[in-house]
Input
Amino acid sequence: MWVHPGIVVLAGAIFLPFLRPRRVEQMIFLALPLISLLILILTSLGYFGELPFELKTEFLNYDVLIRVDKLSLVFAYVFSIAAIAMNVYALHSSSLEHFSAMVYVGSALGVVFAGDLFSFYIFWELMAIGSLFLIWFRRTKKAEEAGFRYALWHLTGGLFLLAGIVLYVLQTNTIEFKAFNNVGLAYYLILLGFIINAAVPPLHAWLPDAYPEATVTGAVYLTAFTTKSAVYALARGFAGEELLMWLGAIMAMYGVIFAVLENDGRRLLAYHIVSQVGYMVAGVGIGTAMAINGATSHAFTHILYKALLFMGMGAVIEVTGRSKFTELGGLYKYMPVTFYLYMIGAFSISAFPLFSGFVSKNMTVYASAEEHLVLIWFLLEGASVGTFLHTGLKLPWNVWFSREAVIEARDPPKNMIAGMVILAALNIFFGTYPGYEILYSLLPYPVEYNPYDPAKVISMSQLLLFTFFAFWIMREKLRGEEKIVLDTDWLPRIVGNYFIYYCLKFTEFSKELDRKLLEASGKLKAITQLKLRELTPGYGVLIVCLVFAVYLLLFIFS
Amino acid sequence: MRGFRLLYALALILIIADVVYTFFAHPKRHFYWEVPAFSAAFGFVMCIALVVISKSIGKIIMKEEDYYEKLKKVR
Output
């Protein structure tokens, strides 16, 4: 009998807030993703039967399908592996934060194994809730507001998805989650639900808005699961959809252009999530076996290096309490270990040879060249220049060098360093032999791609080296500026602002109306000398509630 | 600087390696413009272009940090 790793993690998460003493809680917290990884390894080895397989269980009179195949396994693998390192990093945070992180991880695992649309939807929404609390636990005013905006984006996206699923099921009479047929409206509603979670511009603004406001440890989880499970969903349902190819390529460039302007370290990295997910979305859109492999492997390595980058920047925030470039600088003297570990992540995201990004990103770019998609190739290749420019050069230069130290600091607590070391080791492992062979063997299609072809190594090295030369010329221009960058959430924020304003105006108006009415009725009473009870608004509400309750009871029992 | 001398040497080695490899091994090229040292030029030009383009966009969309707070009608 196969055990669902997501259910294991979710079930374990429930106990976390109640476990005493603290040490036991931490042990369970560390064990949960390890158990999940163990189950996955056993599954790959064939302990639970031939792959791929499907399971059917009944839950509340409803058939729940669970599907285990190569595509879902590779995502589950990286979710579990990353969660191990993240849990080490987050060991010192509160047990409630542990709880919501594990709910988030468990539901992401649930998403990748869901075989039917409704259980998929339930895990999808659970993921949004788990992640929301990782933002709110920062307990600042900004985090609270950003969390509400985050929730609004995701609930809206979830509603589109639900509407699409219901329509789709009605039209096709199947609840199985596989490649969607283009049946018109339902198809596009589901796609819309997915691309909101994948942070495709112009629907991406929740990501750079909310992630930088999350807790130091929570943000590390946020980088991995929401966008990547959306990539999984797109790869499963919409492989080869041409629209995605264009959206992805634009997205890759979009994130890079906005990252130039950013002053906040984690917000810069958040824009790079948008950019990197662009590669995956483009790969899914191209839809050839190599492109899907590229997208999947890129999701795999991306989770590992992006979490490492957020950990590095998070360590700086943890120690100094600052995240803006204008308030940081010269920290190399105090935090050298953090710097080197961060740079391993930066080399990985920039696709340096021997680092993990090199074996995955270039596969997607290469797939676009194989299909002779000139513009797509140009945008993706251009975005990889920008990736190195910002995460590899601008951010470390602004935080660790660029001027004399402006604040005293030290390297972060041991468990944070340990989490970063695990991820740094994994990034080097998957970038070199035999790591990348192992990664390739996990991919959904057989791989016919040699990343260490000399031509590829030479051209990538040239690209990166000359990017560095250009950066050195312009480095003074890339200092942080004390400003914020408006993004596409400008419109909803302004509209929302007016909406709330007019709502309040309306309540004021109705209050006034209420008061006048009461006054009038009081005068009426005086005239008619009725000895009725004082008609206060409290009684009015009570009466209305009672009437509704009676209606409801009649409705239920009739 | 000494570090830079190393980098220049590396750049030279990479370009020479690219030329040699192209002439002797004839690697697969997808586009006609993929001549030796194309990536080097692409990296350099693209990097400058990115910064210039973003900074010019930034002139419009970069605002003071309390931009949204000032716009708020409800506090």
